[in-house]
Design brief:
The structure is a single chain. With 57 residues, the protein is mainly alpha-helical. The protein has one domain (3-56). The chain has helices at residues 3-7, 16-37, 40-56. The longest helix is centred in the middle third of the chain and has 22 residues, at 16-37.
Length: 57
């Protein structure tokens, strides 16, 4: 999971306020999606998609 923020550009400083929010909630979102899907790969993909959409909005 530690590679997700870097892969999404969160740690690059592009949007510091978004980075702070993403880092604070990333694990909780992933755990929730893992609970719902019971599949690590799907939960990772959905978490990445979720934060990407939030970043773009």
């Amino acid at each position: 999971m530690s590679s997700w923020p870097a892969r999404m550009g969160v740690r690059t400083g592009a949007r510091p306020s978004f980075a702070a929010i993403a880092e604070e909630h990333l694990d909780a979102v992933y755990r929730y999606l893992l609970l719902m899907t019971r599949n690590r790969t799907v939960a990772e993909d959905l978490t990445s998609d979720t934060f990407e959409k939030a970043f773009r909005s």
